[in-house]
Amino acid sequence: MYQGLDPNIDVRLLRATYLLLKEKNVSRVAALLGHSQPAVSLSLKRARAVFGDPLLVRSGQRWVTTERGREIQALLEAVLGQLTEATEAGRDFDPATAELRLRVATMNCFGAFLIPAVVASIRAEAPGVCVDFFAPTERTDLAGELGDRTDLVIGSWLAPPGNLRSSTLLHCSIACVMRKDHPLARLSRIDLGEYMKYDHVSPTPIANAAYSPIDAPLAQLGLRRRVGVTVPEYAQIPQLLRRTDLVFSTAKPYADYIAETAGFGELTVVPAPREFGEMQLYMQWHERAHASRPNQWLRNLIRQEARRFDHALNDLSYEAPRREAVPAA
Length: 329
What we know:
- It is a single chain.
- The chain has eleven helices and eleven strands.
- It is an alpha/beta fold.
- The strands form three sheets. Strands 3, 4, 5, 6, 9, 10 and 11 form a seven-stranded mixed sheet that branches. A two-stranded antiparallel sheet has the order 1-2.
């Protein structure tokens, strides 16, 4: 039976404790919370007293979580998620007057189209809402990010991870971009054998090939293309293609876009090997944010903008294990 909480426990302490157990880094947690490092160190000291365990201990130059600390971390993730749902579910959300900051991970070529359109709609509907878009790296724990401080992930995996809620935004064909005098430029469609003969350029927001809409189908066929150059930004790719014999594989709308706007008339687009199938763009979020009114609003806004790409969007019917139904307009 409930007997009341220890008076030393409050939500701020629970959140700081969870972040400390997750990040294992006082300075990083201080930056996330906007607190000083001494204040975060004091929170750790308080948490140790409340839970009767060191929670984090030194192992050489790094911190590791104790066995009790791992139990507390899992418990706090569930409790904080439930508290968020409980406080937001009964709260009216008016985009026109809301003041908050959202965080969205994007890792796909559709950013050139989708992000500007989404930002324009956000500024029109909710001028007080700020959004931090960021590109994950190969070290980013997306499930952990969504479970804690990231609201949405937008990506073009071959298939989305099944442990999160998912919604398909659009899907379209895959094409290759190259110089007009490239040996592949004369083909009506590139076959797989020819494709594998040439070096390729690839952006690297995430290095895991299992999530790549290009490398994952090849891996399923027991193949691995030669990526001659990787770059940190999509904007660098057109200049590389103009000056080299590299090939860039991407969604056809984006292939057409860079050939027409950044290729200076020197690039051409050819359909990719049929084995690649179609590229799909997904939106994913954690269970903790499913009932959040701001998150629901943002998801619906992104869906509406995705529908504007009529030339690419023809199916919103992806059935994920816990897929959210698309609300009626």
